[in-house]
């Protein structure tokens, strides 16, 4: 699935991933391939991205929004 993590200052990540873990306002949650469409708010915490190679990346955010649609995840974050 394609993942984009964007802040007002820069693009933190663009690429393919097999899993992304997000700090949701009501608790942490994960999104995997073929996830149902969703829009959610994010709170302060770490975003974990697991690339197709298995490499794990972490990004600290203060708040944000995530949209999942058609195997594309877009994270708009304040970080």
Written description of the protein model:
This protein has a single domain, classed as ATP Synthase, domain 1 (Sandwich). The protein has no helices and eight strands. It has strands at 2-6, 11-24, 27-32, 38-42, 45-51, 56-61, 63-69, 72-78. Strands 1, 2, 3, 4, 5, 6, 7 and 8 form an eight-stranded mixed β-sheet that branches. It is globular, with a radius of gyration of 11 Å. The model has no long low-confidence stretch (mean pLDDT 97).
Quick overview of this protein structure:
Helix content is 0%, strand content 72%.
Question: What is the N-to-C order of secondary-structure elements (H for helix, E for strand)?
Answer: EEEEEEEE
Rg over CA atoms, rounded to whole Å, is: 11 Å
From the N-terminal CA to the C-terminal CA, the straight-line distance is 23 Å
Task: Give the oligomeric state.
Answer: single chain
Number of helices: 0
Stated plainly, the CATH topology is called ATP Synthase, domain 1
Q: What sort of overall outline do the alpha carbons produce when their principal axes are compared?
A: globular
* Strands, total number: 8
Report the β-strand fraction as a percent range.
over 45%
Helical residues, percent = under 10%
